[in-house]
C-alpha cells in the first residue's frame, strides 16, 4: 500500500477542507466540538449542503446519486469532516439501508427511496434488536403475516437509535416460524407514520435521548415494501451489518478526539509540569495512538477490497472490535486527564446560562465517556464479534 497522497489527492483534500471552512455553519461546528447532542434539523442542514455540492452519498455509485469517489478520496473526506467538527452524516440511510436497496431492491424502490435519502428528505432507523434478541438476533419474534396486499406486523423493537426523528424504519420480521430461524426472516421497509406504531424514549446514562423502544401493533405494510425475496432477510441483514461494522470503526472521529485529548494533556498539570510529559500517561497515550494508526490502515485495506468488488465479509468484525475499544480508551484517558473535574456532570444543553464546572476544554467529555460504554455493545456486541471471527474467519 502506497501511503503517500498523489498531487491530485492533495488537491482534493484542499478542496474538501476549503469547502467545509466556507460552508459549515459556525453554530453547528461549535456544537459538535462541545459534543452537544444534535437534533435532526442541524444534521439535515449539513446533509443538504453536501447534497447540493454533489457529496451527499460519498460511498454510493454515481448511478444511484453517489460521488463515485475512490477509496482514498472517501478516506480523505471522512478525515477532513471529522477533523473540522462536521456533524456526522446519518448512517442509517446512507451506510446501511441505502446500499441494501441499491443492491437488492427493485427498480421502483431504488427510484423512490434513494434520492430521498441523499437529499435528507427521509430519515431512517434500524429495527433489528428486540428484548431477548440482541446478540442472538436470529431469535427475533416480530411477526409479519400476509393479509391481501399487505403484511400485518406485530412486535417490539428496542435500542432503536433516532427512531424519534425517523420517517422510515428498515425492519427484520419473521414471516415463517416453521423453518430454521435464519430462513424465516424477511426485510421490510416500514413508514413510521403508520397507525399502530408507538415510539417510547430510553434515556441513557449520559442523560441523552438517542435510543428508543418501538412497538408495532397490527401495523399494515404494503407487500411492495419487501426488499428482495421473502425469507432472505438474514442475507440482506448480514450484508448491511458488514457496512455498519466498517463505519463503527470511527477512525476519523477517534483521531479528532485523540487530538483534543493531547490538547487537554498539555493544558492540565501534575506536580508543576504538563500531564502530557508524565511518563505513565504519555506511554498510554502513545499506545492508543499506535493502535489507532493500525486500525486506520486495516480499515483502508477493507475499503480497497470493497472498491475492487470483493464483498465485505465477517472479517469486518475486527474493525468493530478494535474501533469501539479504542474509542472507549480515548474517552477514559480524557476523563482521567480532567481529574476531579470529571466528577460533576451535567449534559450540555442549549440555553444553559451557567458556566461549566471546571475548565472549558472539559465540556462534553464525561458525556462521551458515559455514552461510550455502549460502543462495545451496539452493532453486535464485541463478544459476538469474536465468536464470528473464530467461526467464520479462523474456522474454529
Helices and strands, in N-to-C order?
Answer: HHHHHHEEEEEEEHHEEHHHH
CATH class wording of the largest domain: Mainly Alpha
Overall number of structural domains: 3
Q: Can you tell me the overall shape?
A: globular
Arrangement of strands in the largest sheet: 2-3-7-6
CATH-defined fold name of the largest domain: Butyryl-CoA Dehydrogenase, subunit A, domain 3
Rg from Cα: 22 Å
Helix content percent band: 40-55%
Instruction: Compute the number of helices.
Output: 12
Low-confidence stretches: none
Quick one: biggest sheet? 4 strands, antiparallel
CATH architecture of the largest domain: Up-down Bundle
Strand content: 5-15%
- Let me know the average pLDDT: 90
Instruction: Look at the helices and sheets and give the structural class.
Output: alpha+beta
CATH superfamily of the largest domain: Butyryl-CoA Dehydrogenase, subunit A, domain 3
Structural overview:
- This protein is of the alpha+beta class and 396 residues long.
- The chain folds into 3 domains: 7-89, no CATH class; 124-232, Butyryl-CoA Dehydrogenase, subunit A, domain 2 (Beta Barrel); 248-393, Butyryl-CoA Dehydrogenase, subunit A, domain 3 (Up-down Bundle), CATH 1.20.140.10.
- The chain has 12 helices and 9 strands.
- Strands 2-3-7-6 form a 4-stranded antiparallel beta sheet, with no helix packed on it.
- The radius of gyration is 22 Å and the shape is globular.
- The two termini are 30 Å apart.
Amino acid at each position: 500500500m502506497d501511503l503517500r497522497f498523489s498531487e491530485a489527492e492533495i488537491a482534493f483534500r484542499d478542496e474538501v477542507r476549503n469547502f467545509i471552512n466556507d460552508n459549515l455553519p459556525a453554530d453547528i461546528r461549535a456544537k459538535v466540538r462541545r459534543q452537544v447532542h444534535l437534533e435532526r434539523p442541524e444534521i439535515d442542514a449539513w446533509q443538504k449542503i453536501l447534497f447540493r455540492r454533489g457529496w451527499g452519498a460519498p460511498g454510493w455509485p454515481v448511478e444511484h446519486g453517489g460521488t463515485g469517489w475512490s477509496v482514498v478520496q472517501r478516506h480523505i473526506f471522512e478525515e477532513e469532516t471529522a477533523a473540522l467538527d462536521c456533524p456526522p452524516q446519518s448512517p442509517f440511510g446512507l451506510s446501511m439501508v441505502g446500499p441494501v436497496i441499491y443492491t437488492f431492491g427493485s427498480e421502483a424502490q431504488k427510484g423512490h427511496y434513494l434520492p430521498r435519502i441523499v437529499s435528507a428528505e427521509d430519515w431512517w432507523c434500524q429495527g433489528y434488536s428486540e428484548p431477548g434478541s440482541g446478540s442472538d438476533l436470529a431469535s427475533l419474534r416480530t411477526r409479519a403475516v400476509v393479509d391481501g396486499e399487505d403484511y400485518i406486523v406485530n412486535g417490539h423493537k428496542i435500542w432503536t437509535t433516532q427512531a424519534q426523528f425517523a420517517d422510515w424504519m428498515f425492519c427484520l420480521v419473521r414471516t415463517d416460524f416453521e423453518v430454521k430461524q435464519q430462513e424465516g426472516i424477511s426485510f421490510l421497509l416500514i413508514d413510521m407514520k403508520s397507525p399502530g406504531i408507538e415510539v417510547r424514549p430510553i434515556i441513557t446514562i449520559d442523560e441523552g435521548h438517542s435510543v428508543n423502544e418501538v412497538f408495532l401493533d397490527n401495523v399494515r405494510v404494503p407487500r411492495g415494501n419487501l426488499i428482495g425475496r421473502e425469507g432472505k432477510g438474514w442475507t440482506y441483514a448480514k450484508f448491511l451489518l458488514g457496512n455498519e461494522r466498517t463505519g463503527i470503526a470511527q477512525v476519523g472521529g477517534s483521531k479528532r478526539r485523540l487530538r483534543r485529548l493531547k490538547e487537554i494533556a498539555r493544558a492540565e498539570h501534575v506536580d508543576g509540569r504538563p500531564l502530557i510529559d508524565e511518563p505513565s500517561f504519555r506511554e498510554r497515550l502513545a499506545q492508543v495512538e499506535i493502535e489507532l494508526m493500525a486500525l486506520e490502515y486495516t480499515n483502508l485495506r477493507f475499503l480497497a477490497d470493497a472498491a475492487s468488488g470483493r464483498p465485505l465479509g465477517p472479517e469486518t468484525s475486527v474493525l468493530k472490535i478494535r474501533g469501539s475499544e479504542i474509542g472507549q480508551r480515548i474517552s477514559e484517558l480524557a476523563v482521567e486527564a480532567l481529574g476531579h473535574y470529571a466528577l460533576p456532570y451535567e449534559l450540555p444543553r442549549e440555553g444553559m446560562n451557567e458556566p461549566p464546572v471546571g475548565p472549558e476544554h472539559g465540556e462534553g467529555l464525561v458525556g462521551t465517556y458515559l455514552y461510550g460504554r455502549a460502543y462495545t455493545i451496539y452493532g453486535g456486541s464485541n463478544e459476538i464479534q469474536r465468536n464470528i471471527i473464530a467461526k467464520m474467519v479462523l474456522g474454529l
